[in-house]
Write a structure and sequence with these properties.
single chain; 443 residues; five-stranded parallel β-sheet; five-stranded antiparallel β-sheet; 13 helices; 47% helix; globular
């Protein structure tokens, strides 16, 4: 029997979740034991005495909040699936909870159909034991030495694609090669979209160990292997992957590895250069690496008033896109988004260094204005993409003007690609293609 713990300081929220679980059990003939706790301290005490398979954890609670409770419980019961239940607009706490051991999150108010679908997925994941690194059979072909748990994404529609995008961007840890990972997630998104267009359900499985993440995509045999390979070589430079008849897997390093020092040979007798064999130095060799951060710089080409206005507009868009995910938009909402886009675009287009981004945002604004009704209808499916696009813009803004960046345009490709995907939602009549451009074509 599966044991579930609901942690929330509001009894009404406990009752609602318990009712959803009981409804699921009645529909699927399951039996589950459900317990409740009113705060993180009570939850921690319960977890010290008994094992739970699944925990639904609120964040804002007295005595001990959900983030701290998640951190401690993950250490005591590493195999337990902890799911955060938080309020709209609480993204920073959601991310902190995910980084401290939570595996997923819901935003209140929870939709019963969505909850039951995800509960079904959690029960599927519970079937595999999880814990420290082991040699249990993995999905990826690189290694069996992975953490036992696997995160599985079953994609049935465009909404699932959007949830996949948001989930991956918020759960992957900071020590991954961020730019490459963003490109990889975008590739997985587009590949899955192409598979769905052929009525094939993509299944994405994420595994990990101390050094790597492993992303595996099943059911790829519906697509030409040669075409997949060509796209990977084109859009994922220096990626490590394996492709067989029905499985595509990527290996992504969790941290950068410094290059190995090279010993420069001093050839004294050029006529016998080919006979020289490198010798181990007698004295210790000190190798000094130039830190990557030394190549970063802060840019100051933008006027202070434009800089302030741009930051305000990006934050305004972030608020609007959070609203898109769980609330129905109206004409006034769209007007606010369009106005923020127009101001953002106009500022960026004032400066030669940022004109490319300005033009891309201007073109997106024109599409939204052309068919406002379509934008409103597609808003729930596009919310994750829009948030990702705006998050990239905010990261770019902070890096270029405050923290330091390798160049002004270092994130242009990522941001513009996100914009193009939002545009593709608003142009449903256009087929997804994989040709000489950025799309997918598997014919």
């Amino acid at each position: 029997m599966k044991k579930i713990l609901i942690v929330d300081d509001q009894s009404l929220n406990q009752t609602i979740l318990e009712a959803y679980i009981n409804q699921y059990c009645e529909q699927h003939g399951e039996t589950m034991q459900i317990k409740t706790a009113n705060n993180g301290v009570e939850a921690l005490v319960l977890c010290q005495d008994e094992k739970f398979d699944l925990i639904f954890m609120d964040i804002l609670m007295p005595h001990m909040n959900g983030i701290e409770a998640t951190k401690h419980i993950s250490q005591i019961q590493p195999n337990t699936i902890i799911v955060i239940v938080s309020t709209q607009g609480d993204e920073e706490n959601q991310i902190q909870a995910l980084r401290n051991g939570a595996k997923d999150y819901f935003v209140k108010p929870i939709q019963p159909d969505v909850f039951k679908h995800r509960l079904d997925l959690y029960l599927h994941i519970m079937g595999s034991s999880r814990g420290s690194v082991s040699t249990k059979q993995s999905i990826n072909p690189f290694t069996n030495a992975i953490f036992c748990y696997k995160t599985t994404y079953l994609l049935e529609n465009e909404e699932d694609l959007a949830q996949l995008w948001e989930s991956m961007l918020t759960t992957i840890k900071d020590n991954v090669r961020t730019n490459f990972l963003s490109d990889l997630i975008r590739f997985i998104y587009q590949l899955s979209s192409a598979m769905l267009s052929k009525k094939v359900q993509p299944q994405i499985i994420m595994e990990e160990n101390d050094a790597f993440y492993f992303f595996s995509i099943l059911n790829t045999k519906i697509l030409p292997a040669q075409k997949i390979t060509q796209l990977i070589e084109k859009s994922l430079e220096n990626s490590v992957y394996k492709l067989d008849s029905n499985l595509l897997s990527f290996q992504v390093a969790k941290e950068f590895r410094a290059p190995q020092p090279q010993i420069k040979l001093e050839i004294k007798n050029e006529s016998k250069a080919e006979e020289i064999i490198p010798q181990k130095p007698k004295e210790p060799v000190t190798v000094t690496y130039k830190k990557e951060t030394e190549s970063l710089q802060k840019f100051d080409f933008m006027e202070p008033e434009d800089l302030t206005s741009l930051e305000l507009k990006l934050n305004e868009l972030a608020t609007q896109f959070m609203w898109m995910g769980s609330n129905e938009l109206n004409g006034d909402d769209v007007d606010q988004i369009v106005n923020a886009f127009e101001r953002t675009s106009s500022i960026l287009m004032l400066y030669s260094q940022t004109q490319i981004l300005g033009i891309a945002i201007r073109d997106l604004t024109a599409i939204i204005q052309k068919d406002e009704t379509m934008f409103i209808e597609m808003a729930p499916q596009m919310s994750a993409l829009c948030k990702s696009f705006n998050n990239d813009l905010i990261i770019w803004f902070k890096s270029v003007f405050y923290d330091g960046a390798p160049s002004v345009n270092y994130m242009d490709a990522s941001i513009i690609s996100n914009i193009q995907m939002v545009q593709s939602f608003l142009s449903p009549s256009e087929d997804v293609s994989l040709d000489e451009g950025d799309g997918f074509e598997f014919f």
